[in-house]
Amino acid sequence: MTVEAALGLAGLMVVMVLLLAGLALLTSQLRCTDAAREAARLLARGQPHEAAAAVYQIAPPEANLTVERTGEEITVKVTAHPATGLFPAIHLAATAYAVAEPDTETTDAPG
User: Fold this and answer.
1) What parts of the sequence cross the membrane (predicted)?
2) 68: CB partners within 8 A, 6+ apart
3) Among 52, 57, 88, 104, who pairs with 46 as Cys (CB 3.0-4.6 Å)?
């Protein structure tokens, strides 16, 4: 009976660790999505430096910001690697689109 309990507890711990790692991945993905949306909104308003700062604050650590601007259309992509070491092959990415507001400068975001 002791061996079965030990195996059951070990299995339960593995499941718990995988659930917590999955929750961390989900949280990081949501942070990437929020950062991309906020950066697109700020770029549409003509605030490129604030957009880069928002990504730095909202996205997971060491996230990358990529901005493509075609005429008035702005595409923002935020990519990151998850904080958990259990899934090293997973790359997180989120994309947001916006249309530049009238009377805004067409300067691109740094980064």
Assistant:
1) 6-27
2) 74, 75, 77
3) 104
In 17-51, which positions are buried (b, 16+ CB within 10 angstroms) versus exposed (e)? eeeebeebbeebbebbbbbbbbbbbbbbeebbebb
Strand order in the sheet with 92-99: 64-70, 73-80, 92-99
Report how far residue 2's alpha carbon sits from residue 60's, in angstroms, rounded to the nearest whole number. Answer: 42
CA 83 to chain centre: 11
Q: Report which secondary-structure segment, H or E, holds 96.
A: strand 92-99
